[in-house]
Amino acid sequence: xxxxxxxxxxxxxxxxxxxxDVTPERLDQLIRGYDRLVGVVPPxxxxxxxxxxxxxxxxxxxTHVFESTFESTEGIKExxxxxxxxxxxxxxxxxxxxxxxxxxxxxxVN
Length: 110
Hints:
By secondary structure, this protein is α+β, with helices and mostly antiparallel strands. The chain is built from three helices and four strands.
C-alpha cells in the first residue's frame, strides 16, 4: 500500500560515499553546515546523521547516512529550493563520490 498526498511527516534520507581526498576536518565542517539548515529552512524540523556500523558489509561503499525530517512533501520542495540549501548543496555535492536520496513517509504496520 503506497502512502500518498503531501501532508504529514516525511523523512529525507541521503546515503553518501565521499571522495577519498575529503579530510575529516572538511567532513566535520560539512556535517555542521548540514545541521545548521534546521534553523534556517522552516519546514526542516530535525537532522540526524551517522556512519555505517553494519557487520553485513552490504553498504556498497556508502559510509554516511543523513536523515532530515520535514513537515510534508511540499516542505521538502521548499527546502530544495531554499537559497541556504542551494548554497550548502554547492559545497556538499562536489565532495561526494556517489549519493542515494530517498524521501518516505514513515508508516506503521497495523
